[in-house]
Input
Amino acid sequence: MNYKYWIAFSSIEQIDSRFIKRLYDYFGDIEKAFNSDAKELENIDGLSVKQAQNFIKLRDKVDIDKVFANVESKGINFLTLEDENYPKMLKNIENPPAVLYYKGKLFDCNLDKTLAVVGSRKASTNSRNNLKNIISGLGNTDICIVSGLASGIDTVAHTSAIENNLKTIGVIASGFDYVYPTQNKTLYENIENGYGAVVTEYYPSFEPIKFRFPQRNRIVSGLSYGTLVAEAGIQSGALITANLTLEQGRELMCIPGEISNPNTQGIYKLLKNGATMVTESADILDALGWEIKKEVQTQLTLPTLTPDEEKIYEYVKIEERGVDELLSLTGLSFDNLLMNLTTMELKGIIKQVGGDRYKAF
Output
């Protein structure tokens, strides 16, 4: 099977997708490309003698069957550039991954309605809340949120997607032998086990080395029809992704933030240069020309509330609140508050949204 040769190419750490694609395009057959000799490689425009010799030296060390069996044994799925169902938006970028490894249910995600979300790893509370509110406005639709599974904005994007019944794709900067950051292990597992897919261009044993993160960004934007920047400093990975979005001819959108926050300097630079401002979910739909149909939701008719329940509802209907906040705002005792929160959940009036936070349905 030709698949073995795609994986064999991908397992060579010192070459990249651009190199693999160049050989594949020239030979028109991945097996011939992998087994090519120095004389054949000399005929490829732009390929130096040194590059050719280096490839042959590395290629001869690869155990084709072993590297392929390693991928299969770990339950990792993959797509190659010659697969018909390789994501079309990603295939259209200047340097698509030669092999796209994935775990989860990639094709349960609507790859025709993909939105990338990027931003600071040290995201402000304000930007986190803004992003949560905007994603909640897209809830219960077939839109798929794409991000990089890093800390900060990426984590908010993925978790908000899951909380709002959206599929999500996480693009990682290593092979599947690694989870980075380690605190996102549960999030990785949740995405893989029903909420979407985790994807990477890297063979399983490749580590999350620094230079791979900006390389990964072209896949985040490349999978997507548009990119939403939630927060970005002047020199940040999010700004790299924003520039890639423009290079790929995709829609660039930004959430404005506090002008005194250094992490919004990149945002305002992008807005001044013509990025679309997003303050609500409808702005995204307008920018991308998407019409969406939400899953049918019956209008919630509130049951009769007790005075204590009314106090709680007044605060959670505006935005999600934590137990400590509700204790302070309502003046209820701890036991009384917890009893009422449980009763209101059972009545379907509120729901718990991670940790000890609650919001109205």
